[in-house]
């Protein structure tokens, strides 16, 4: 019973579309009709209001941190399944016909909740790749790939399979970005 209840709550928390909500309230726009049409933070930055973009980023991270930290302390045996549920909620929200964000901000929240070293590793790697390339998508894909490699070679960590699954999912959500990167058609991102 705990498993069903916890995974359901985590999924529903993950599926709160903050990018859509914020652009509707403050900009009177539908983020799904802006830029890539994605509801995540990177596309929210394209809304013309950087504050909305950054607030979306923070809230998408927090919607993972809040439930995952709770599970970590009260139901530690369910940490990975609940984390996956939050992530899937963001990427496939039930009230948006399962068309959500790409999952990176929520993934970052999951990493910091499970082990802050993983969160720092991801963030540091993303920043390096982004400032070299100016491609948010490339930074996200490669940084997500670094985490299971880091976990595999570090005996203090475990469950590299969980991080491999999340890498595969994030690669899937970025499949169109990968095509554009290969064809040199990907848009560079301005974060300031």
Can you summarize this structure?
By secondary structure, the protein is mainly α. The protein has helices at 2-14, 18-27, 41-45, 50-74, 79-91, 104-114, 116-133, 136-152, 160-173, 175-182. The radius of gyration is 16 Å and the shape is globular.
Task: List strands and helices in order, with pairings.
Elements: H1 2-14, H2 18-27, H3 41-45, H4 50-74, H5 79-91, H6 104-114, H7 116-133, H8 136-152, H9 160-173, H10 175-182
Helix pairs in contact: 1-4, 1-5, 2-4, 4-5, 4-6, 5-6, 6-7, 7-8, 8-9
> Helix fraction?
55-70%
Quickly count the domains: 1
**Biggest sheet statistics:** none
Query: How many helices?
Result: 10
Distance between the termini: 46 Å
| Chain oligomer state | single chain
Extended strand count: 0
Shape: globular
Structure description:
With 192 residues, the protein is mostly helical. Helices cover 70% and strands 0% of the residues. Helix 8 runs antiparallel to helix 9. It has one domain.
Keywords:
192 residues, mainly alpha, 10 helices, 0% strand
